[in-house]
Design goal:
The complex is a heterodimer. Chain A is of the alpha/beta class. Helices cover 40% and strands 21% of the residues of chain A. Chain A has a five-stranded mixed beta sheet with strand order 9-8-10-7-11. Chain A has a three-stranded parallel beta sheet with strand order 5-1-6. In chain A, strand 2 and strand 3 (83-85) form a beta hairpin. Mean pLDDT of chain A is 84; it is low at 1-34. Chain B has one domain (5-211): MetI-like fold (Orthogonal Bundle), CATH 1.10.3720.10. Chain B is built from eight helices and no strands. In chain B, helix 1 runs antiparallel to helix 6, helix 2 (43-57) crosses helix 4 and helix 3 (61-71) packs across helix 4 (81-106). Classes of the chains: A alpha/beta, B mainly alpha. At the A-B interface, helix 1, helix 8 and helix 9 of A face helix 2, helix 3, helix 7 and helix 8 of B.
């Protein structure tokens, strides 16, 4: 203490700033540890069920992963239901996190994953220069991107929903969003909104908790994101209400380096395996299924969308 | 090369300029007021000035902006997003302006202030006629640096829903998957703003020197 603060007065000023910092980190813990629904998401059962590949072909990417001893992927750590890091335990839970761990287990025999959180700006660049082996994390398969990366998938198809304040009765159908401010997170949800509701005014906040606050405080009329995430929020927050509106479909794929097509075939084979042996179903049940009611959907057909 | 995105990118550039030219005057005014607090003969004002600078300057800019955007509405004040952000930027860089002004004032010889007092000038006149005209001249260069930092700091708006250059660049990249082209374009935008600022500062400095 004495080395960092040269005198007692500055130490006092530093103490004064603490409440500011505390009020910020508070939302972080609330989102993970203090949130009962998200806390029950645990995909370890599905990972234990996951297959391990027999003999694998040698490709540059697989050689590198084996040499390193773990899978390095680009993804998120703050996306409830898909990939959310528990700040207390360090465990990453959710559907996308599970797919990454299953792929690591398939390739290496152990689910060791290192996640690089570059956001949606850098995925193509990081795959291109081999900073990461794969990109798994609400990565929508698009033909524009397929010029730069090889997509294995889709392994999940997300639909966008609309969340409003509990007392809001104005938003009944998609066209009601025209000309109004709608909160979205950058990435898949943003693309879907821009494409399907071009007359809405998107307001971009990075954290899901910020989007929820913006709706609660009336800064925006609605928040659009994938239905699993919104359902999870509306269950724990009585000030927010899920509407029946659903639109768009975002096929999520696993991005792999463009210059290693043999590796893509291995990942495609991996997806076929986990979809056929029931691992995919188990993973869905203990991640997205915790947030979404209803029966387990059929897994999408791999290679069924343009760009995959 | 940019297709239909050129218009969005240009609008983003305009927003960045708008945020910068709105936030900097706010920072300037806050900084001057704080500096006057810091050198004023009234002890509570000195303490308030010191407290503001130490708390604000030692907090990350993003934290301050997020507190203004999501904290103020909970206190019952819902300002438009743009003004929350501009106030955050202005308040933050105001602390830096204050430090710059204070060090500018320190270069004015103590004897001049004593002489001003001796001929009976009140504190206000000491400030406006003796201290600030000399201090401001020495501050042109560091203030230019703060202006540049304000322009660069405005990129944080992308994280909190301000449709400025960085956010439009990210949307462009999201759709076209051309990260290198996208971010090089953004970099050129910021470079253009900041080269212009540097040029302005140089001209202003030359002018100030002639006046001396």
């Amino acid at each position: 203490m004495s080395t960092r603060y040269p005198n007692r007065r500055s130490a006092l000023f530093a103490l004064g700033a603490l409440p500011l910092l505390a009020s910020c980190s508070g939302s972080e813990t609330e989102r993970t540890a203090g949130n009962p629904r998200y806390a029950t998401i645990d995909q370890s059962g599905a990972i234990a069920h996951g297959p391990v590949a027999g003999r694998l072909p040698r490709t540059p990417t697989i050689d590198e992963i084996r040499q390193r001893g773990y899978l390095r992927q680009s993804g998120s750590l703050t996306n409830p239901g898909f990939a959310l890091e528990n700040v207390k335990t360090g465990a990453v839970t959710g559907f996308d996190a599970g797919i990454a761990q299953l792929l690591a287990k398939y390739l290496l025999g152990k689910p060791e994953v290192d996640t690089v959180t570059g956001g949606s700006d850098t995925r193509e660049a990081m795959l291109g220069n081999h900073s990461v082996d794969v990109a798994i994390g609400t990565y929508t398969i698009k033909e524009n991107r397929a010029r730069l990366v090889n997509f294995a998938g889709p392994y999940y198809v997300a639909h966008s929903g609309v969340l409003v304040a509990a007392d809001n009765r104005d938003i009944r159908r998609l066209s009601d969003l025209d000309g109004r401010r709608v909160a979205v997170q950058p990435g898949a949800a943003e693309e879907s909104l821009r494409k399907e509701v071009p007359h809405a005014i998107p307001v971009l906040f990075e954290q899901s908790s910020q989007n929820a606050s913006a709706v609660r405080q009336g800064r925006v009329v609605a928040w659009s994101a994938n239905t699993a995430l919104l359902l999870g929020k509306s269950v724990i927050d009585k000030e927010l209400r899920m509407t029946d509106i659903a639109f768009g479909s975002s096929p999520f794929g696993i991005g792999t380096p463009k210059d290693d097509p043999a590796f893509k075939s291995v990942v495609v084979e991996f997806l076929h395996r986990i979809m056929a042996d029931g691992t995919w179903r188990k993973l869905w049940e203990c991640t997205v299924g915790v947030l979404t009611p209803g029966p387990v959907p059929h897994p999408p057909r791999v290679g069924s969308v343009p760009g995959s | 090369m940019f297709g239909s995105y050129g218009e969005d990118l240009l609008a983003g550039f305009g927003e960045t300029v708008l945020v910068t030219v709105t936030a900097f005057p706010i920072a300037f005014v806050i900084g001057i007021v704080l500096a006057v607090f810091r050198i004023s003969p009234v002890r509570p004002l000195r303490i308030a000035g010191r407290l503001y600078v130490d708390v604000v300057r030692n907090s990350p800019l993003l934290l301050i902006v997020v507190l203004l955007i999501f904290g103020l509405p909970d206190a019952g004040l819902l300002l438009p997003l743009f003004w929350c952000f501009v106030l955050g930027l202005g308040g933050y860089f105001g602390a830096y302006v204050c430090e710059t002004v204070c060090s500018g004032i320190r270069i004015v010889d103590r004897g001049q202030i004593e002489a001003a007092r001796a001929i009976g000038l009140p504190f206000r006149r000491v400030l406006t006629d003796v201290l600030l005209p000399q201090a401001l001249r020495a501050m042109v260069q560091p203030l230019g640096t703060i202006l540049i930092n304000t322009a660069l700091g405005s990129a944080l708006g992308a994280a909190v829903g301000i449709s400025e250059l960085t956010l439009e660049t990210r949307s462009f990249n999201l759709d076209t998957a051309q990260p290198v082209l996208a971010f090089l374009t953004a970099a050129c935008g910021y470079l253009a703003i900041n080269l212009l600022v540097s040029l302005g500062v140089r001209l202003l400095e030359r002018k100030a020197r002639v006046l001396r």
